[in-house]
Amino acid sequence: MKQIRVLLIEDHFLARMALHSVLSGHSQIRIIGEASDGEAGIAMYRQHRPDVVVLDLRLPRVSGFEVIIELRKEFPGARIVVLSNYRGSEDIYRAVRSGAMAYLTKDASGEELLNAIQNVDRGLRYLPHVALDRLAERMPSVELTPRESEVLACITQGRSNREIAEELRIAEKTVRIHVSSVLDKMGARDRTQATIYALQRGLIHLD
């Protein structure tokens, strides 16, 4: 079984030790580094290139939000799990919008954290119902046509317009029209934001 190489970025010593204890007890997890602030966390990522980062949002020197943005800018494939005390919709939204693939609160069980890490390692998002419920507060209801719903599903899978056209057997020009309509109806600036909104409202579901 593949071991998932994990980097912990958490400023509180006891919390970091607790995380280390919980995760290192699983044979599938290998902790390859620990950092107590955002700047050190970024440096350790550059050095070790972990499979998954487990990150607190409130960090000294460089905030967790800034860490996410910097890592995703420098390493677009960086896979980040946020573990935070903050439950507000704004924190969850900002973290996911910045590029985090999972958001858990610190009262999550060790089993749920492991599940999140495993999903993120496979390239999947992991947002528990409590996070989706908070995010849903930010968005009004949306009504899409059946075709727009199909296009949205493809968008959330990261497919290009050409790939969507091949999947749905329609012209690429038609896809562009549908994508534009979906973004407009959802009030989304881009495909990433449309994916977040779709998760918020249950328009799509994660496996």
From TrEMBL:
Q: What SUPFAM superfamilies does the record tag this protein with?
A: C-terminal effector domain of the bipartite response regulators, CheY-like
Q: GO terms for molecular function, please? A: DNA binding
User: Which positions carry 4-aspartylphosphate?
Assistant: D56
The record's section on InterPro entries has:
CheY-like_superfamily (IPR011006), NreC/VraR/RcsB-like_REC (IPR058245), Sig_transdc_resp-reg_C-effctor (IPR016032), Sig_transdc_resp-reg_receiver (IPR001789), Tscrpt_reg_LuxR_C (IPR000792), WalR-like (IPR039420)
Which SMART domains does the entry mention? HTH_LUXR, REC
Q: Does this entry carry the keyword Chaperone? A: no
Annotated HTH luxR-type domain residues:
137-202
User: Does the keyword Cell membrane feature in the UniProt annotation?
Assistant: no
Q: Which residues form the Response regulatory domain?
A: 5-121
- Gene Ontology BP annotations: phosphorelay signal transduction system; regulation of DNA-templated transcription
Q: Do you know which CDD domains this protein is assigned to?
A: LuxR_C_like, REC_NarL-like
- UniProt entry keywords in alphabetical sequence: DNA-binding, Phosphoprotein
Return the protein name.
LuxR family two component transcriptional regulator
Q: Which organism is it from?
A: Edaphobacter modestus
